[in-house]
Amino acid sequence: MAVLTAAQARDSRAARLRRKIQDNLLAYAFMAAGLVCFAFFSWYPLVRGVILSFQQNNFVTPPYWVGLENYQTLFDDPLFYTAWKNTLLFTGLALVFGFVLPFFIAVLLNEFRHFSGFFRVLVYLPVMLPPIVAVLLWRYFYDPGNGLFNTLLRGVGLPESQWTQSSSTAMISLVLVSTWANLGGATLMYLAALQGIQGELYEAAELDGASIWQRLRHVTLPQMRFIMLVLLLLQIIATMQVFIEPFALTGTSNPDTITVLILVYRYAFTVNQDFGLAAAMSVLLFVVLGAFSALYLRLTRTGD
Question: For the ABC transmembrane type-1 domain, which residue ranges apply (predicted)?
């Protein structure tokens, strides 16, 4: 009897499991489809890229294993250090403009009572343009001959600039393009966070005699700390992967604007034509961004 009871219990559990699977079969199917897509388009390229970084491969002749030789070649290349320096410089300048400026624009838009929808669309409009279209538009602005900026400078009697052709202005020119093209997304996220702050907090601060800057410092910034930390991390990751702006405006051979991804492009398609070397550079960028993200999340979690 005890054996029969145990068998019945097993059958009952199996029946419940079958019913649970049948009831959630559609959900499992959707989840499996998502996992397959994620594995095929994310995990497989990641693993394939790591393997490729240990090979010499031009996808024409058969690849062969070179071990750590690709990484040694990277560290022996002077452009490797130039690319990292330029990338870090671009990231730093882009954060000065692209992280701080959207916040103050959002604060300004939050104070508007009329035409607020129009100004939101106006701020977000550059994001709606394809990135290459935005860059080509600014390429016309920067044209040293008949470009918009030099035309305006000539009109007011000021000296013209070479913009992207000059080593002193090339990087800041790229930063301005990137900031203008991506300003709208961060601004709207800041604006949404601002509108979620309770008005009673500002009213209490006003009753205590707080000025505008004091309300901004003691009410607005603490309430927006989380969204600002998230956007800071995302913007650092995005700007470290800058490619379109230098590629379209200054090319792949200008040492003043060669970034990490431009160097990856050079290794793969122009100078070396070695996808293994390009993969090694990409793996290093992945490791740097992964380590930075882990450290950043740990520090911000500790701060909480």
Answer: 84-296
Q: Rounded CA gap, 73 and 247, in Å? A: 23
For residues 145 and 192, is the Cβ–Cβ distance under 8 A? no
Spatial contact of 191 and 220, defined as CB atoms under 8 Å apart: no
Could you tell me if 69 and 53 are in contact, meaning their C-beta atoms sit under 8 angstroms apart? no
Residue type, 105: I
Which residues face 55 on adjacent strands? 65
Helices (H), 39-77: 44-52, 69-76
Question: What are 74's two structure tokens?
Answer: 């990277």
66, 276 in Cβ contact below 8 A? yes
Cα(216)–Cα(111) distance, integer angstroms: 13
Give residues with Cβ within 8 angstroms of 58, minimum separation 6: 273, 274, 275
Q: What is the pTM of this model?
A: 0.84
pLDDT tens digits, 105-151? 888 888 777 777 888 888 888 888 898 999 999 999 999 888 899 99
